Amino acid sequence: MCGIVGYIGGKNTKEILLNGLKELEYRGYDSAGIAILSEGSFNSFKAVGKLVNLEEKIKDFTTEKFAVGIGHTRWATHGKPTELNAHPHLGESSYVVHNGIIENYAALKKELVDEGVTFLSQTDTEVIVHLFEKNLKSATDVFAAFRQTITQLEGAYAILLATKSKPDTIFFAKQGSPLLVGINAEDEKYFASSDTPLIGQCESVNYFEDGDFGYVTPSEIVIYGTNGKQKQPHLSKLATNKLSAQKDGYRFFMEKEIYEQSDVITDTLLGRLSEDAVVFEELSDDLFDGVNEIKLCACGTSYHAALSASYLFERYSKVRCCVEIASEFRYREPIMNKDTLFIVISQSGETADTLETLKMAKNAGLKTLAICNVDNSSMVRLADATILTRAGVEKGVASTKAFATQVTIFWMLSLHVAKLRNTLKPQEITKQIELIRQIPASVKVDDAMHERIKRLSKRYLHGHGFFFIGRDIFFPLALEGALKLKEISYLHAEGYPSGEMKHGPIALADPELFTIALLPQNLLYEKSKSNVEELSARDSTICAISPLAFEKADDFIQTKGYDHYMLEFFEMMVVVQLLSLEVSIRLGNDVDMPRNLAKSVTVE
Ligand code: M6R
Q: So what's the pLDDT on residue 234?
């Protein structure tokens, strides 16, 4: 997690760093800080909480001359979100910012403390700058000291270091956390954790690879690779149009992103549907050759999309499917057979646990596919093949449109494989493609429905728990509904298979237990209804979401209803998203930046 930025040049360094951090604030907002080295001296500022606090604190500070600057927005891992723990961290005459975790920091810190070094923070990061300054005392030059420091670090990192010993230079290193450098015609250099802050500032960028380290000055970019040899920067052109990230009159980005789903799914479908086939030009024809199993691996919402995919792949493509939580998979010594296609799903493409499983699959010689929203992200660069979901920039920490596009891709992909394997009749494929074309309409927010949910939400601000329940593919949707509610409302919520409630959780049923029941008309309606009746008989408060009236419900959200359960899935997805949004707003929470979370989880 965390976002880092850097700048070398003669413009308004303070503004450049703050603007860059604004773009990265979704990565963490426990604290923020900058350090600027100009005319031989450093100015450094830090503030706890969101970036506005830092902005306010330094509103009177100006920078006009040539400077080197580094900045950081933090999602705390080691040490509380205090000013002392905020980055940049200071040595004697150097500052460092870091994203990731230095796993051997305790041993390194002990060594340094024994030698008399004083630490100000509880962070793992601070060891980097002290180690560097220690190495500086004996090294032949400044870069040699930095290089030596990097070899002593274990773990994941993207590091930027500025020092008075080389006042026109930023030293960098990347291992497991994203980092890139951008250049422009004015010989300015920009660093960032993702390319968004650089759009409009730089013409081209170099995405560092794991193991890269080196330094950047106004006139050169010097990169060394894992083998210790110098290598040429690999510059690629940077997009010029920053996707609109304004709220456009919506109260929160999450709300805007819910409303955008219809448009982004239209983009997801663009050029990928013919009358009788799903066309993924980005996939080679032989990707599915010899594949007897699909393993899907992801975290959080993307994991729920993966679970949804497993129903579609088994039902339509007749391929054995298993779904894995990335943080579990990576340590349980899994069996990996070469006839397995390994699919990772990630909005950001940077989630540390998911990325690691992708590396494991590659090392085991499996074919790999990434379903991802961010081009050029680490997963996209690593996987054998990628399908981009085209959801556009998702700013709300609670994922909405990314999930919608992931499930859309999976429905399409299951049909694509079904066609390759002849597991569905051509007429059925043609019919389902017609249905897929209706997804954008099914997720359009109906004003009357939104109003109804807004009104209903006031009845769901308390209670001792929520159970979102559904059957079949509506079970992953129930999980997703519960995750949305808990992450932005801080109310306890669980997703459960409807038929499983009677095996334990039904013991919790009373009027203060809220059941949000997903009751599609086209999939196991009667069975799901019986499960809800069991809960209603035990006096749980029921909110039913269905196109069919349900007299046992306390509250009823009537959906329009479609002829196919997948279109009902998308319609109900919007309902659970809006319900979470409205509950959270009524509770006065920061919907887009809920407590303790960050948008991109690049630590394990
Ligand atoms: O970027 P990714 O899709 O890999 O992120 C995975 C999860 O961290 C993410 O989906 C998280 O659960 C969201 N906050 C859910 O809304």
A: 94
